[in-house]
Amino acid sequence: MLWLVAGVASAGSAVQAATVAELDREADEALARLYATSPKAKELGDRARAVLIFPKIVKAGLVVGGQGGDGVLRAGGRTEGYYRIAAASYGLQVGAQTFSFALFFITQSALDYLDKSNGWAIGSGPSIVVLDKGRARATNTTTLKQDVYAVPFGQKGLMAGLGLEGSRISRIEPAA
């Protein structure tokens, strides 16, 4: 079990070692892939105040698990900051996977909370709704009533679930 925890930690460090230019490029590519495969996500992006894109999150676990990755906050097509998502978990879990993740900030108050909090623990603060493919199809601009919408995409590997409970998002300053 210790080898798995060590592997998750080293994988997370590798993901988090990206430079500003690499993160921006990876975020552009990930968001383009999402919009190409999900017109509803594109509509959501057009309506959102900002989008926080995590191009690659690494998740692994064997009873004890973890996940992590770096992301880019975009508002009006401009980069507004860089963030890291990290989580640990314990329970009936086994496997490893990578995936991309986009958080669409609909309200200004949710975006302000991200900026003002010293690390946002998902589950506290603004309300967040995870949109899987089925729920995304049912959304339109009149049904968007929550503060933040989360869209996981591009999953590779084998791992049960994509839960965000206990995840923490913190602002970072990556290397130039």
What this model shows, in words?
The protein contains 5 helices and 6 strands, in the order αααββαββαββ. It has helices at residues 2-15, 20-37, 39-47, 108-116, 133-137, and strands spanning 50-75, 78-105, 120-121, 128-130, 148-159, 168-172. The longest helix is centred in the first third of the chain and has 18 residues, at 20-37. It has 176 residues and is of the alpha+beta class. It starts with a helix and ends with a strand. α2 crosses α3 (39-47). It has one domain. α5 (133-137) links the parallel β4 and β5. Strands 1, 2, 3, 4, 5 and 6 form a 6-stranded mixed β-sheet that branches.
Given the C-alpha coordinates, what overall shape results?
Answer: globular
Strand content of the residues, in percent?
Answer: 35-45%
N-end to C-end Cα span: 36 Å
Which class best fits the helix and strand makeup?
alpha+beta
Oligomer: single chain
